[in-house]
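yo, VRR-NUC domain-containing protein is done. seq:
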Amino acid sequence: MTEKAIQNKIIKDLKDRGYWVMKTQGGVAGTPIGTPDIIACNPSGNFVGIEVKKIGGHISQEQLHQLGKISQHSLDVYVTNDPDFGKKIADFFHDSDEIYSDNFTRTVTYWMFRSRLYEVNQ
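structure:
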């Protein structure tokens, strides 16, 4: 599955669950390089940043730096290649105040908190 296809699926799943969703384009005028691909807010006001990678993709130093800066301001930032992540993050905010590993599948997802990436255990 391409990165764009994964992004589109995540965006659709979030919108279907009532999220406000913005697809960003890092490096375009007014948007810093490394900005997450998706910024979303659920009806309760929880914002998340989601950087999407294709399977086998990697995060650049610019992205890592920008995601770290964002996470220092208490925005939850995720890096994922899971096409079902939109459903899972919506379920997470609906059902829980903590991340439980059984919310995620065999694909890799990372959560960034205060500039440190943590792998969400499968």
